[in-house]
Design a protein that fits this description.
With about 350 residues, the chain is α/β, with parallel strands linked by helices. The protein contains eleven helices and 15 strands. A nine-stranded mixed β-sheet has the order 7-6-8-9-1-10-15-14-13, sandwiched between helices.
C-alpha cells in the first residue's frame, strides 16, 4: 500500500500595503466617462472585498512611480520588481512554519507562481535564505493560474506515496498586482479589482498530522478555453477573465459533481475549501453543489480580507479549514484555471 500523504502545516504571508481602496480610487482615473465609473463603483461595492495586499506602495506607486499615469512599466520592469520582492515574501512564509527545526529533513521543494519568471529561480533563493540542504530536489509549477495550488499538492502527494520518507515543502508566491494594464476597458479593470499579492508555505509528508490527502481529480470543461487567458505581453502579463466564467463553473459542477468530489456526495463533506476567485464564482459553486451559505464561509472570509491571490489562495482557505476541522471530518478543496479547468482535492482531518 502506498503511504498516505498528509498536509502537515501551512503558513501564510502577505505584503504590508493594503491597496484595495487606493486601487478603487486609482481605477476611476483610468475610466474615461462617468457612466463607466458608476458601473465600476457599483461592482466594487458588490465584490465583497475589503482588503487586498501588495508589494507596491499606494503612496509612491499608484499614479506615479511604478504605475505613473500614461507610463506603465514594461515586462522587464515588472520582472525586476518580482525578483526584488518575491524572495523576501517567500522567506517570511517559510519562516512562519516554525523554528528552523521545522524544516529539518526537507527532501523536496516545489515552487509555484504564475506572476514572475527568473533564473536562477526562486527555488534556489529559498534554499539559500532558509538553509535548506543543497541536495533538495526541486520542481517548479508555472503559469497554471489559480488552480496550481491544488496541482502542487497533488505532486507532493505523489512524491510522498512513492518515497515515504520524503518531506516536501510547497511554496506558492504570487505578486498579482505587478500586472495592472494601462487600459480603459471596464471588464479588464474590473478583473484586476479582484487580485492581490500573497504567499503560502506548506509541508507535506507521511507524518499522520494535519489533513490526509485522500484523492485528486481534474475536469476540463468543453468549449471554454477562451474564458480565462494569461499571456506574456510587452507590458506585463495580460489576463482576460470572462464574465461567463461563473456560469461555466456552475455548469461544469452540475455535469460532473461526482467526478470533482471523487465519487462522494456533497453532504459527505463537513468542510469546503473553495478558491475564492470572486464573489460570483463562490456563488456558482454554492449553487452548483446545492450548499448551505455557511459552507463557503472560510472562502468568503479570505476573499474579504485578501482578495484573489491566484495559486496560493486555496492554501489560505485550507489553513482556516485545518484549524477548524475536528478529527475524522472530511472536506473538499477546489480551484479553477485556464482551460476552463477544475482541480479538486478530498481530504480528512487526522486524529
Amino acid at each position: 500500500m502506498p503511504a498516505t500523504a498528509y498536509l502537515n502545516r501551512i503558513a501564510t504571508a502577505a505584503p504590508p500595503h493594503d491597496v484595495h481602496e487606493p486601487f478603487v480610487g486609482f481605477a476611476r482615473t483610468l475610466l474615461g466617462d462617468n457612466r463607466r465609473r458608476g458601473t465600476f463603483e457599483r461592482m466594487a461595492e458588490r465584490a465583497q472585498i475589503e482588503h487586498r495586499w501588495s508589494c507596491l506602495s499606494p503612496e509612491t506607486d499608484l499614479g506615479r512611480g511604478f504605475y505613473a499615469a500614461g507610463r506603465f512599466p514594461s515586462t522587464a520592469d515588472r520582472m525586476r520588481r518580482f525578483e526584488t520582492e518575491s524572495p523576501a515574501l517567500a522567506q517570511r512564509a517559510v519562516e512562519g512554519l516554525g523554528p528552523p527545526s521545522a524544516l529539518r529533513g526537507v527532501t523536496h521543494l516545489i515552487t509555484v507562481t504564475c506572476t514572475g519568471l527568473m533564473a536562477p529561480g526562486l527555488d534556489l533563493e529559498i534554499v539559500r535564505r532558509c538553509g535548506l540542504p543543497t541536495s533538495v530536489e526541486r520542481a517548479n509549477i508555472g503559469f497554471m493560474g489559480c488552480q496550481a495550488g491544488i496541482n502542487a499538492l497533488r505532486l507532493a502527494r505523489h512524491i510522498v506515496r512513492s518515497e515515504p520518507d520524503a518531506k516536501v515543502l510547497v511554496l506558492n508566491v504570487e505578486l498579482c498586482t505587478l500586472h495592472l494594464q494601462d487600459t480603459d476597458a471596464l471588464d479588464r479593470i474590473l478583473s484586476f479589482l479582484l487580485f492581490g499579492d500573497g504567499c503560502t508555505a506548506a509541508l507535506v509528508s507521511a507524518e499522520p498530522d494535519g489533513l490526509a490527502l485522500e484523492g485528486f481529480s481534474s475536469l476540463v470543461a468543453q468549449d471554454t478555453e477562451g474564458l480565462i487567458t494569461w499571456h506574456v505581453r510587452d507590458s506585463g502579463f495580460d489576463m482576460f477573465l470572462s464574465g461567463r466564467v461563473p456560469g461555466a463553473i456552475r455548469a461544469a459542477i452540475q455535469d460532473g459533481a461526482r467526478a470533482i468530489t471523487g465519487g462522494a456526495a456533497a453532504d459527505e463533506f463537513s468542510h469546503w475549501a473553495v478558491h475564492p476567485g470572486g464573489r460570483t464564482i463562490l456563488d456558482a459553486v454554492q449553487s452548483g453543489f446545492g450548499l448551505a451559505p455557511a459552507a463557503l464561509e472560510a472562502s468568503r472570509d479570505i476573499l474579504r480580507r485578501f482578495g484573489n491571490m491566484s495559486s496560493g489562495t486555496v492554501l489560505f482557505v485550507l489553513k482556516s479549514v485545518m484549524e477548524a476541522a475536528a478529527a475524522g471530518e472530511r472536506g473538499c478543496a477546489m480551484a479553477f484555471g485556464p482551460g476552463l479547468s477544475v482541480e479538486s482535492l478530498t481530504f480528512r482531518r487526522a486524529a
